[in-house]
Amino acid sequence: MDYKIVERSFFARIARMVLKSSNVAMVLGKSIHLSGVSRTEFLRNEGWLAHELCHIRQFQEHGFFRFLWLYLRESWRVGYYNNKYEVEARKAGMKHCQHESPAKRASGAVQPTGFPLPADTKKEV
Ligand SMILES: [Zn+2]
Questions:
Q1: What are the counts of helices (DSSP H) followed by strands (DSSP E) for the chain?
Q2: Is beta strand 24-28 parallel, antiparallel or unpaired with respect to 119-122?
Q3: Ligand 1 centroid – CA 5 distance (Å)
Q4: Where are the annotated segments for Disordered (predicted)?
Q5: Are the C-beta atoms of 50 and 93 separated by less than 8 Å?
Q6: Are 67 and 58 in contact (CB under 8 A)?
């Protein structure tokens, strides 16, 4: 898939400050914006990468502004955790971890953040 990684992103840093989390990966169009996590650490985590790539596909499928609108609307309706775009991305992320033990899978899971954009954080990297 065609995507770009932006390290020490200004946008991801804002999200990170608002969320008070130690790391954030946020997808805007075809770019994955990172803050608090390096490109190397991020790419090493297949589940996390797969999750964010799923958001990139969602942007491509629906169009940039339309997807932002659909994402926000989902969040208003069903909450962030049940947002269908996050559910889909979580599933994509989990597929890569099927060989891991359930405990490790849970610890590696990407947390939806409650930020009104596809921004995700991880407890440990
Ligand atoms: Zn997500």
A1: 6, 5
A2: antiparallel
A3: 16
A4: 96-125
A5: yes
A6: yes
**Ligand 1 centre and the CA of 102: distance in Å?**
20
Query: How many A from CA of 119 to the centre of ligand 1?
Result: 6
Please give the distance, rounded to the nearest whole angstrom, from the Cα atom of residue 83 to the centre of ligand 1. Answer: 9
Structure tokens at 77: 């309706």
DSSP assignment string, 53-113: HHHHHHHHHH-HHHHHHHHHHHHHHH-TTT-HHHHHHHHHHHHTTTTS-HHHHHHTPEEE-
- Separation of CA 113 and ligand 1 centre (Å): 8
Model-wide pTM > 0.85: yes
- Rounded to the nearest angstrom, the distance between the alpha carbon of 43 and the centre of ligand 1 is 16
- Could you tell me which residues are beta bridge partners of residue 5? 32
- Asked whether the predicted pLDDT for residue 105 surpasses 80, the reply is no
Residue 24, strand partner residues: 35
